[in-house]
């Protein structure tokens, strides 16, 4: 069984991601040492697209060098690294280069020149980072589907975009060197007719990434911060992702989950973190869990949604919060080998179309039936209706019993 990976999404303590404007290796190394001190084994890091590529045909060597330097600092701290490339969205802010905006507006998903420029950036980053032993791989960008609101695209256009950029990232890294993947927020799984599809998330790239946030679909507000629905959300997201994969052995990475106030009150955060990690770790095929995020946003920075100021394992002064202690203790327990995932031989059949995908999200009939079964002690897998009669598929996944969602 592959060793589970546990890490955190790195948010610089000083200056948030604006720290890239005046990158300070000493401060970065101090942050990374704190992260490693929790017993975590990796970080996910983000540069800013406008700083990397301020002109469509200009990729700044100094910015690429900064990124490579941060990867090396992580290695010195004993941490592996996943690098996100085209950073157009982070924590409710969008970062577009000026050549995509206003008078120069280009749809980043459909304009051929914009796609080619992003491919050049990913190819350049891959070549600059390839060969570093602590590099996990290269991801296209953070939750790129957040940019759909201002860059409308069809599912077919998104698929072309993802295929083009994944190929460029692989070309940059080289064959057999690190993972190449992409990420999307939960609309890809629950959003009716959303152009980033579950199939794209579960079949493109080397690993499926899920970002099961408790505010997505109003999960925490619907059911409560200590509810089974909230505590099993990352587990559910992992099983849902496995259903859409063509390869039963394809790993799933819980790449973002966190305890945002007020959805998860601070007093409940340690319990939430422990239960979320333990429940997700009960899924076979899990690559690992990466918490969001390392450090709180400092309140001297204005205009963030309130929840963004409270998501760190460390506060803005660099002190570990109770949730950090809970994460560290849970990770240490799992690494002891005392808990091992068990195969799931019972599956709940998911019957939906792209226009009714929301049945699988919080509040939906499918979601609620899965959670009801889970509370009764069943550990259900998810099987798509079109595969319910595919004996070879069921056998490959170890599924022996199928349950239908009762009609309401």
Automatic annotation (TrEMBL):
Naturally occurring in which organism (per UniProt): Streptomyces griseorubiginosus
Alphabetical keyword list: Hydrolase
Protein name per UniProt: Glycosyl hydrolase
GO molecular function: hydrolase activity
């Amino acid at each position: 069984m592959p060793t589970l990976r546990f890490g955190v999404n790195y948010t610089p303590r000083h200056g948030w991601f604006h720290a890239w404007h005046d990158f300070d290796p000493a401060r970065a190394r101090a942050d990374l040492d704190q992260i490693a001190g929790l017993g975590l084994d990796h970080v996910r890091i983000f540069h800013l697209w406008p700083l990397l590529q301020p002109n469509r045909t200009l990729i700044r060597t100094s910015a690429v060098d900064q990124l490579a330097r941060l990867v090396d600092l992580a290695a010195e701290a004993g941490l592996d690294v996943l690098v996100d490339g085209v950073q157009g969205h982070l924590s409710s802010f969008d970062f577009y280069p000026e050549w995509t905006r206003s008078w120069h507006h280009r749809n980043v998903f459909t304009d051929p020149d914009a796609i080619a420029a992003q491919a050049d950036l990913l190819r350049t980053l891959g070549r600059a980072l390839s060969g570093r032993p602590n590099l996990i791989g290269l991801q296209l960008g953070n939750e790129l589907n957040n940019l759909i609101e201002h860059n409308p695209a069809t599912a077919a256009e998104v698929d072309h975009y993802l295929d083009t950029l994944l190929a460029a990232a692989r070309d940059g890294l080289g064959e057999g060197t690190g993972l190449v993947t992409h990420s999307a927020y939960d609309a890809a799984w629950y959003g009716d007719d959303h152009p980033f599809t579950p199939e794209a998330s579960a079949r493109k790239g080397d690993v499926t990434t899920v970002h099961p946030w408790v505010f997505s679909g109003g999960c925490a507000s619907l059911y409560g911060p200590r509810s089974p629905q909230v505590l099993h959300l990352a587990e559910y997201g992992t099983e849902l992702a496995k259903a859409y994969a063509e390869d039963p052995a394809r790993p799933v990475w819980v790449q973002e989950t966190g305890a945002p106030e007020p959805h998860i009150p601070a007093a409940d955060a340690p319990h939430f973190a422990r239960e979320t990690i333990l429940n997700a770790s009960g899924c076979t095929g899990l690559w690992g869990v990466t918490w969001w995020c390392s450090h709180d946003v400092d309140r001297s920075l204005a205009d963030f949604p309130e929840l963004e100021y409270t998501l760190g394992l460390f506060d803005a002064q660099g002190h570990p919060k109770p949730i950090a202690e809970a994460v560290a203790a849970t990770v240490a327990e799992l690494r002891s080998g005392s808990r091992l995932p068990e195969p799931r031989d019972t599956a709940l059949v998911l019957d939906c179309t792209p226009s009714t995908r929301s049945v699988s999200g919080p509040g939906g009939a499918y979601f609620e039936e899965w959670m009801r079964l889970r509370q009764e002690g069943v550990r259900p897998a998810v099987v798509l209706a079109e595969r319910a009669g595919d004996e070879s598929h069921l056998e490959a996944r170890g599924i022996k019993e199928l349950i239908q969602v009762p009609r309401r």
